[in-house]
Amino acid sequence: MFKDIYFLNVSEISNRIRQGEFSQAMMLKQFILFSILFYSGFNLPIVLAGEPANSWLVWRMNILTIIVQAVIHYYGIWYTYQINAKGDGKDYLNRVFCLALPISIRLLFYILLVVIAIIVVFFLLVFINNIELNDYFVSALTIVLSGAYSAAFYYLVGKYIRVCSGAA
């Protein structure tokens, strides 16, 4: 699986791409691994001595978030790649990179609306009705929302790659 992955040698990968020796499939493997490692998070917290007992909850939830995000990114990239392959099969990575900015901005707007709605609901539940929300609920909600954001991103990328590639 890691045979054609370049972790450190940027010069060699650059030369192989320039010379046409680096296939689209090899680029896809690079992109999947990059996405899983960096787009998924690396958000493990630093636990300091004397932190409250729920710091282990934070660790578990962050690890779960990383796993969920890694799975979504892997299948999202694979899903969009397959859509592109059913079309003209060209320029997958260029299309993803070009579509990523406007799709992300659109999703950012929608996620802000969802966050505002959640804040209003939390305000009504917590301050008006005196309902206590535990850490597990808030952590689960965070995982669900971040997963929904990532899944929506790949769904929209797939929708627009279908247009770019001429896939049916």
TrEMBL record:
The chain crosses the membrane at residues 31-50, 56-75, 96-124, 136-157. Keywords: Membrane, Transmembrane, Transmembrane helix. The keyword Membrane applies. This is Transmembrane protein. It comes from Reinekea thalattae.
